[in-house]
């Protein structure tokens, strides 16, 4: 337990001295503010034009930020020889990885908090602002998205040998999960018989954290009816008292599995050398 | 790194996470209460069945009183409970001496009140007819009947009008009474069949199947009614010349449904918050022709204006804001859509087919135009991308990608040949003042500013604590 704390604390410290963290923070805050300025004096409530745009902005930016921060942090340790040094200490792989994850989450959540705090206060000062539950829902969305993709980034950082490989993989995953997702699914599933399409989409959506989080948030914001009659049950289900706990459970399972695979790969590397 | 510093770091990190977690919990609690909050306050309003009538008033034989009256008589009923069913078959005026005091109760399967005579007037009665049944609570088959200020609790159609013309229903309240009945099995509030030239004004209809249903009934005036929590607010089938004006509807599946109708006018109505159902719309035109839809306000619905297989309609000056989809235009031609304001919708418009409409001078807030000659409207047109509509028509499961970032990207790629698309030829650069109104603010916004401040504070504190100290 103590080891995890040490690694996490070190990660937080390094994270806040990392120019990447600051440039990401500036980027996120700037985009949040500019969105507010474009829609100055409009009030953000429920699923509407502006909250939809904010969702999409976060989907573009946050997964990429999380993937890069996490993957670079791990590959940096390998490239700079820190990991070799750490290996001589009595430090387990699990403590190392989970400590890293916790430390990076704090850094990333601080970035998100700053961007959100800024836009919340600025929106209010500009005369528009957010409805409280909508604001909270968007914040939850950003936090979930960050945590999901940090989990994925641990895996990327484990598999990649150096920062270049990490960059390639991270951008690839981001593009696949966020931009190309509908195109790929439409192309691939369009060839399948009609009755298979919906189950296939359902399974695949649970594999893509960006889609999963987006849909959960859209339904929570009251926009479930946009999904059409096919997904009436999803809408009802997410709206029920079990919706939030089950989503949280799925998220933890997803992140846990990502960390476990990273752990297995890392351990193997350690043994094989 | 010395252990004290590490401890301090961990404490700070944990504090930050704790603040975030607490605020999230608060938000989630807020969400669940606000989700269950509105919507239900009216639904839960129990229709009150009055039971505390004075003991000494025994049940009176209303039918006997009616039988004794002569045509042209006025019958003023004293306070009390009267047993139905009753039939009025001659021209009389039936009035309560005190509104709310006269209760007509019916336990039979026949209508509580059947009006067969011409020119009958009924005013101020409370009718309690709460068993679920086929026959309407009030059945009108006489001509030129006037019903005013009634308060009806029903387990069937509230007021059904059959083959009767030129009547009036005003200031009447109709509510569904029995519990646990699915919406599809409820009766309509006011149900007109083959009934022409009726005037329906100032009624309040809640929690029924269709608020006002008109079939084969022409030239009705539907004005100033309030329609809530029902399937459709106003529903026209096979009608002509119906006027629907200044009504208010919220939380129905659809506000105004105009189907297979001609020369209907829908003017100055307000339909809001019709977003819960996957088939919800503000105003729907289906197979409607020569209709005029003007100066309505449709806010916060799933689809603001839905137009399918309809021609020669005029849609002008409506304010369509904060809907999930502003305008949905399917296989409709020769319509004129001008001067509407589409603001704050998640998707401005979707179209399929619909090539030859005259669409111009609307404001779309998702579109950035260029106005070189300074006439206030854009020199480039706004084309409505048919890709998503076409895709989901063939394969509805792909509806899941509605406005996802990848979908927006893909729609952009698809924009190559837009010659056959429905388009606004000269979209406005700025919304007209009357079409622009922001969503109503709630009290929560100061709270979200506070939460924002707290987040900002925590984050800054952490940054401050993390700064590199030069020793």
TrEMBL record, chain A:
<feature type="transmembrane region" description="Helical">
    <location>
        <begin position="20"/>
        <end position="40"/>
    </location>
</feature>
<protein>
    <submittedName>
        <fullName>ABC transporter permease</fullName>
    </submittedName>
</protein>
<feature type="transmembrane region" description="Helical">
    <location>
        <begin position="52"/>
        <end position="74"/>
    </location>
</feature>
<dbReference type="GO" id="GO:0005886">
    <property type="term" value="C:plasma membrane"/>
</dbReference>
<keyword id="KW-0812">Transmembrane</keyword>
<feature type="transmembrane region" description="Helical">
    <location>
        <begin position="242"/>
        <end position="266"/>
    </location>
</feature>
<dbReference type="Pfam" id="PF12679">
    <property type="entry name" value="ABC2_membrane_2"/>
</dbReference>
<feature type="transmembrane region" description="Helical">
    <location>
        <begin position="166"/>
        <end position="189"/>
    </location>
</feature>
<keyword id="KW-0472">Membrane</keyword>
<feature type="transmembrane region" description="Helical">
    <location>
        <begin position="101"/>
        <end position="126"/>
    </location>
</feature>
<feature type="transmembrane region" description="Helical">
    <location>
        <begin position="138"/>
        <end position="160"/>
    </location>
</feature>
<keyword id="KW-1133">Transmembrane helix</keyword>
<dbReference type="GO" id="GO:0140359">
    <property type="term" value="F:ABC-type transporter activity"/>
</dbReference>
